[in-house]
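Hello,

I think I submitted the adenosine-5'-triphosphate job twice by accident. Can you confirm which output corresponds to this input? Input:
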Amino acid sequence: MKTFQMQCKVEIIRILRNRYFVFWSLVMPIIFYYIFTNLVNSDVPNKAEWQAHYLMSMTVFSVMGSSMMTLGIRMVQERSQGWSTFIRITPLSDSVYFAAQMIGQSVIHALSITIIFIAGAFINSVSLTPIEWVMSGLWILLGSLPFLAIGTLIGLMKKVETAAGISNVIYMVLAVSGGLWMPLEVMPKMMQTIGKWLPSYNFGNGAWEIVRGELPNWKNILILVAYLAVFMLLSKYIRRKQEVA
Amino acid sequence: MNEILSLNKVTKSFQYKTAVNDVSFSIGKGEVVAILGPNGAGKTTTISMILGLLQPSSGEVKLFNRQPNEKQVREKIGTMLQEVSVIPGLKVSEILELIRSYYQQPLAMKDLIDLTGLTEQDLKTRAEKLSGGQKRRLSFALALAGDPEFIIFDEPTVGMDITSRNRFWQTVHYLAEQGKTIIFSTHYLQEADDAADRILLFKDGAIVADGTPAQIKARISKQSVSFIVDPERPLEKLYQHEEIDDIYRKNNRVYVQATNTDRVLELIFQEKIGARDIQIERGKLEEAFEQLTSGTKEAI
Ligand SMILES: Nc1ncnc2c1ncn2[C@@H]1O[C@H](COP(=O)(O)OP(=O)(O)OP(=O)(O)O)[C@@H](O)[C@H]1O
Ligand SMILES: [Mg+2]
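Support: Only one job matched these inputs. Its output is below.
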């Protein structure tokens, strides 16, 4: 238990000290939020709804990024710098280690969500009911699971540079084509059809529904669970192959 | 029986190379053993198998009479790997606390700092900002964090300055006195000679010598007696004895080479050649090392 707490604490400290995390997951989403709700698109029909919608988009964007990149790159770093090897000869068990990473990451996400929500409330006085705040926050926290699984996939790469490059591309493509930067409705028909099947769109849509006073679609949940299952299986399969080699 | 480690007919083959070939040895409690051998002799591979980081292709490794990767075993071992490992983003003191929390009975933080010579400054520094030698000191501390009974170091002093190196060996002596079992690999023969009470000499994946430093040195056939003598003095008389293999002068001294040095001493006095400052040249570990590992036969 002492080990577990210590490990969680350390994971959290490490993420907070990571400048890329602070920049990409906190500073950037808040700046984007300010720009896109105040400097451009300011003549939307229902302003309050757009501001709440876009706050969700940016929070989802932040959490999605840190799930994939922070976790993935950290895993590659630990392996390439020999730390994983060293850990293997200590009594720390794999499951405690893995659980601590996930918990640490989730605490960080809860923190990011809170900070970005507060920023939204300040910048545009977004006002949701307490239930809506909590529900959308929880949705974003839980919905990050498939992206954490993508993170563990990225974590299987050999080099930090490749992992950072590839995860960045995946991140941006998912964000744009999932409608996190601009709503899917303004995109070409083809993009919309594809976008609706992406994990990022379904992640975002759950939160958008909640701030519109609805519940997330069953379809959103099912698609996210399916992605989670696929990525986990894939990650397990690749890991097994790597161990044999 | 206080056998801590045993290797039984252990072989490790990689795709194109047999790195360790049918190696067997065992180590008892409290032994301090040096693993010597030229580059690529299979030292690191052997150590990796002892630690359970690599599985042998055949044969068996037992640590504390168990499989090396069992949790009970890991509680009792500590290691410094050849490739230094750091965790980025944490201060040295945080890393030490973290690793200590993995063990049921860790070494007290103060002891850890005293034994390894980590400074206040080191403790406050983030691991990725340490110099090479400071990283070594950190990994030394990590090896001791769990207060292990069995410690294994792979080339521990590479990159350490003289002070850190002395500090390191002082601590190793102290640990040996505490009854810890210690294995280390090194390329510095002096270290093996000073610190180990047993040497395993590896060559091409096999053990070519196993014994105390003195025993290994004694395996070199060439021993000699050296002395100073008046240059005018003829040494012909000595040449007449068959026991003597060779006589030569070097740095104002005369060297008489023979397998039996006691017999040479006898002859020197018998022939009354007026030798002064007589010394027996025991042979150096370097020479034994070179003799035993020369000839670059590739392991198959
Ligand atoms: N993962 C691997 N795949 C293929 N060959 C390997 C692997 N690891 C080691 N070898 C080979 O096995 C042999 C023994 O390597 P090892 O690292 O055990 O040597 P060593 O005695 O530790 O050498 P050094 O003094 O240079 O550290 C070398 O020829 C090396 O090329
Ligand atoms: Mg080596």
